[in-house]
Request: fold
Amino acid sequence: MLTIKCAKCKDKLLKYNKIGQGRVLKCWEEKISRIYGKVDDGKLLCNNCGNLIGEVKTRGGRNYIDMNREEFTYSGRKIPK
Ligand SMILES: [Zn+2]
Reply:
């Protein structure tokens, strides 16, 4: 489980079940176990500072957040495949 945080203010954004060791580029809705940030008008924003973290998109009927690489950090463990 990863805890994804805002790069600017370190406020928590998501708890995410990242599978595999790849970079965190997309956060698929079904693997998000908790959202602390704010989803507004198809955007994920930091609740604390309003930083734009990513945009909600859909592929093959599944929603994901297309993450802005510069705007977040994370800690925790990725799940081995
Ligand atoms: Zn923030």
Notes: The mean pLDDT is 97. The radius of gyration is 12 Å. Residues 2-76 form one domain. Residues 6, 8-9, 11, 46, 48-49, 51 surround zinc ion (CB under 6 Å).
